[in-house]
Amino acid sequence: MTVSSSNEVFLVFGAHIDEEKSGNGWVSGLIQEELSKTGDRYQVSSVRIEDREAVLRELDRVKPTRVINTAGKRGFPNADWCEDHKDAAIRSNVIGAANLVDCCFIRNVHITHFASACIYDEDESHPLDGPGFTEEEPPNYAASFYSYSKLVSEQAIKSYPNVLILRLRNPLAADLHPMNFITKLIRYEKIVNVPNSGTIMTNMTPAAVLLSRHRETGIFNFTNPGTFTHNEVMELTKKFIRPSLSWTNFSLEEQRKVLKAPRTNAKLDASKLEKTLAKYGYTILGAQDALEEAFVIMKAKGYK
Known about the structure:
Layout: E1 9-13, H1 26-38, E2 41-45, H2 52-62, E3 66-69, H3 81-84, H4 86-106, E4 110-116, H5 145-157, E5 163-168, H6 181-186, E6 190-191, E7 195-196, H7 201-213, E8 218-221, E9 228-229, H8 230-240, E10 248-249, H9 252-257, H10 271-279, H11 287-301
Parallel strand pairs: 1-2, 1-3, 3-4, 4-5, 5-8, 6-10
Antiparallel strand pairs: 7-9
Domain NAD-dependent epimerase/dehydratase: 43-187
GO molecular function: methionine adenosyltransferase regulator activity
Organism: Penicillium cosmopolitanum
């Protein structure tokens, strides 16, 4: 993308030290890399988004023209963490998100909020090989506490006129960060093999910054068009970076027995996102092409 010559000042939330690990959040780091590439000025905040006074002070100090929020509790090593830390999940995913959006509204600042598409689950009208859920269709899934917190959060903030909501799903990029979907899969001895929508950040991060820069608002399914399966991710991992990789599949019923909370499987319709990005000259890749591109980049980087 062309290096920016604008006077934008981005403020990125989501880089504080977590209970699970220290340092910048994964998505926050990807956003920072993209802002560096485009030459945009940005600062990274370490304040807790549920701390209203601290957030307002931060907005007044930096005076950003754009805020990007990547903060939130998903849990480590997976979303089951939220089942045992419900207070922390609500404090960050619901109270924190609503507080930050409201503070930005008061200060007249546009905010891009990274949300979750794990609030949908396949049904008779939306089989995994059929039409995807659109942004206009009401969410139908809150069986895990993580999904419940993200559903409540979206409902709380979606009416604000200054917010852009980007729904991530199974996010992955050209790295092996602990929160990367690739890394999560290769950690397991057994995995299910079902098609799902996904967000390949290698291809999608520039789109997020572009949407923020153009002050888009409302809800977007922030996923690459199409789907990919768990096995396809593992096969590409084996092909490009880890030839010795092996795994075993098991059924959804068997998976449920080893998890504290059930998981959702869904296909999202990305046509609204494609049409909007086309206005700005950006084309996102289909899920299969974007996935392979990410692994080509990983191999070039020397990941093993």
